[in-house]
Amino acid sequence: MSQTTSSTPAAVATLNRTQKLAAVLLMLEPDNAAAILKGLEPSELAAVAHAMVSLPPLDETAQQELLREFAQATVATMRTLRGSVEAARPRLEAALGAEQTRQLLQPGPVVAVNTATPAALMELAQKQPRQILTALRGEPPATAAIVLSFLEPRKATEVLNGLPESMRAAVLERLATLGPTPQPVLETLGKLLLQRIGPDTSLPVIQAGGIQPAVSVLKVLPKDASKTLLSQLEHENPDLSAQLRNQMFTFADLLRLSTSDLQKVLREVDARILATALKGADEAVRNKIMGAMSKRAAEALQEEMSFLTRVKSRDIDAAQLTVIEIVRRLESDGQIEIPEEAAA
Fold first, then answer.
1. Residues 6 or more apart in contact with residue 335 via CB below 8 angstroms
2. Domain 119-242 has CATH 1.10.220.30
C-alpha cells in the first residue's frame, strides 16, 4: 500500500467522511483513538485504517476546521441523556459479567464521580458578552447553549439577547436539555472559540446546563422578553416550556406579591388546597398568607391544617402547583402584578 506523496495540503472540502474520521483519529491521543476504532465494524475499520495510512497532508488551518466540524457534529446530536437499568445492564454485563452486574445494580447509595473541568470554556466565560458573541457568530444553537451553561445568569442573558432572534428559542431549548458531553469535545470546542477572541488567564466558577440555568436567564430578562421566548419555545417543545414556566414562579415567590394581590389569589383558592399547600411551605410564606387574611379566616385555615396529619409530598406539590397556576392566570388577565425579582 503506497502512501500519498503530495506535499500540497489538502482542503477539508475534498475529504470524504472516512478520511475526515481518519484525520481526527490521527490528531487524538493513541488511547482515545483506539477507543473509537474498537467501536467500528470490520469493514469500516479496514476503510479507516487505509485512510489513516494514505491521508494527504493537512495544514494547521485544515486540522482546526476538522476539529470544529467534529465538535459541532458531536454537540449537535446531544439531548438529555437518561439513565436506566435497561440501558446499563447489557453494557455492564459485556464488561463485568452477569453476576457482578447484578450486584452493582442492586439499590444502594449513589456515588458521585468528579470529572475534570473544561478550562477552555471556563476561560471563555470570563470574556465580555460582545467577545463571546463574536466567538459564537455562525455557530449552531447547540454550541451557544453549551457556552451559556458556563456563564453566570446575567452574562448569559446578555449573550442570549445578542444572538439572532430567530435562534434564541432553540438555544434556550438546548440549554435546558443538555446532557453529559465528552470532556475532549468541550475542551476542543472551548479552544476553537477562544482562538477567535484571544486567551484569558482567570478562571470562573463552573455552572452546568439544565433547567435552573435556563430559568435564571429567563428571570433576568425583561418580563415581555421572557414571555416571548417561552411562547416561541411552546411551539417547539411544550413540555419543556411548561417546566420552565413552573420554575419561573414558585410557591415561595408568593412572598413577592403585594398584600392586595395576594388577597386576590387567596379568594380563588379552595381552603383545603391552600391548607395542603401550606403544609410544605416555610414559616415566612405561612406568615405572609395568614397576614393577608382576616383573623377569622386565618384561624379557620390553621384549623384545616391541623386536620391534615399525613400529607404526601406529591399532594403538597400538586396543591402548590394549583396555587401557582392561579397566580399565573390572574397575572395573564392583568388582575395582579408579579414584581421583578430583586437583583442578586
1. 264
2. yes
